[in-house]
């Protein structure tokens, strides 16, 4: 009975986040006179907020493990600066520069993971120090804008997949195939997971509920597919990158030993230690992974800007943290989902774009996003009090 109640609670929380996203979309669609969901604006929404989605995936894992990372924005700026200097200053081929950037992100993740996991310094202090260190290094490294990046690199965040399959009544064929494949994969994976859960004796929702949920998700994917297929470029390249990140990390968190260990460590640290989990190893790997995803976000951000600038990544950590908490991550750790973090990132992105279309001052945009974050955390705390 207790497991069934927890299962229902998790699903209600997820449905509530989806309902909030839908309500915000409808709200801004009305206020902007239909401009929010125009095909080109939808493509721009994905391209402009890809960095939030990537960072929020790593951040939700950090938060689940009961930590926080304040350094990711500074890492984005620093690693982006390194990419610019390697490609423009040293003439290095950009694929090699990207590989070096990812390796650098791993190295920095190891550095911060060492202080947190091995030395036992609170992550807040370690990453606050990292935020200051790498922001300072960014300013020293990138004293002026480093422009002139190759068009092929710039297209990572600004380009779209080539129209290999042509067009069907002005709809991009590649995008249509990707959308239909995504719907088919979703239905197959969900039904397969449902069968396995029932075979293992775990609680599952009713068949009607499962069908309704799949219908809603499939309709959402179908609508997004139609809008992107009708946009000027079709499927953004960066959407493919984000999609791969979501698939990989959803699998890691739901299907692997390390994913279960992250939840266990965040949910009950003492019990995790008593069960034989190497807590230090889990904490270390969480920060190594955050460094890797920060490097990936730096690649996307630098490509989007078409240049390396010293102010790149400013307040990105706030966007990532907000997306994770809005998406249902618990302040105390142990609770959170990759899909929830992505929905939280989309909520932040829709707020940004909707308010920008309405020409709302950037200061008010920051205030509104802060209020949304406060409400999300307050709802989480109130929900826990009621449950207890």
Automatic annotation (TrEMBL):
GO terms for molecular function: transmembrane transporter activity. The chain crosses the membrane at residues 15-38, 50-68, 75-108, 114-134, 171-189, 210-230, 236-252, 282-303, 342-360. Keywords: Cell inner membrane, Cell membrane, Membrane, Sugar transport, Transmembrane, Transmembrane helix, Transport. InterPro entries: ABC_transp_permease (IPR001851). It comes from the Bacteria. It is found in: Cell membrane. It is a multi-pass membrane protein. GO terms for cellular component: plasma membrane. The keyword Transport applies. Part of the binding-protein-dependent transport system for D-xylose. Probably responsible for the translocation of the substrate across the membrane. This is Xylose transport system permease protein XylH. It comes from Actinomyces slackii.
């Amino acid at each position: 009975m207790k497991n069934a109640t927890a299962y229902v609670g998790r699903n209600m929380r997820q449905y509530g986040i989806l309902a909030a996203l839908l309500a915000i979309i409808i709200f801004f669609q009305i206020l902007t006179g239909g401009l929010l969901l125009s095909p080109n604006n939808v493509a721009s929404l994905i391209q402009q907020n890809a960095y939030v989605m990537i960072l929020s995936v790593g951040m939700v894992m950090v938060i689940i493990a009961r930590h926080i990372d304040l350094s990711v924005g500074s890492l984005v700026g620093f690693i982006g600066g390194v990419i610019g200097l390697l490609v423009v200053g040293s003439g290095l081929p950009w694929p090699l520069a990207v590989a070096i950037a990812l390796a650098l992100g791993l190295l920095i993740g190891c550095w911060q993971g060492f202080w947190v996991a091995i030395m036992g310094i609170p992550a807040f202090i370690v990453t606050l120090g990292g935020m200051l260190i790498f922001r300072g290094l960014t300013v020293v490294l990138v004293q002026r804008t480093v422009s002139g990046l190759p068009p092929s690199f710039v297209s990572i965040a600004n380009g779209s997949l080539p129209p290999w399959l042509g067009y069907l009544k002005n709809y991009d064929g590649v995008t249509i195939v990707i959308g239909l494949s995504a719907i088919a994969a979703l239905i197959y994976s969900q039904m397969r997971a449902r069968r396995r859960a029932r075979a293992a004796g775990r609680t599952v929702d009713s068949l009607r509920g499962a069908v309704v949920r799949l219908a809603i998700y499939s309709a959402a994917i179908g609508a997004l597919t139609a809008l992107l297929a009708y946009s000027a470029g079709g499927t953004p390249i960066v959407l493919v990158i984000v999609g791969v990140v979501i698939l990989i990390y959803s699998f890691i968190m739901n299907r692997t030993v390390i994913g279960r260990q992250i939840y266990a460590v965040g949910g009950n640290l003492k019990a995790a230690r008593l069960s034989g989990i190497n807590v230090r190893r889990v904490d270390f790997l969480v920060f190594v992974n955050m460094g890797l995803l920060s490097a990936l976000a730096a690649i996307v951000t630098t490509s989007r800007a078409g240049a390396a600038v010293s102010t790149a990544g400013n307040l990105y950590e706030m966007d990532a943290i907000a997306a994770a908490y809005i998406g249902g991550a618990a302040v105390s750790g142990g609770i959170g989902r990759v899909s929830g973090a992505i929905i939280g990132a989309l909520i932040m992105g829709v707020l940004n774009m909707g308010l920008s279309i309405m020409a709302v001052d950037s200061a008010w945009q920051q205030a509104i996003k802060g209020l949304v974050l406060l409400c999300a955390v307050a709802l989480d705390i109130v929900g826990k009090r009621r449950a207890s």
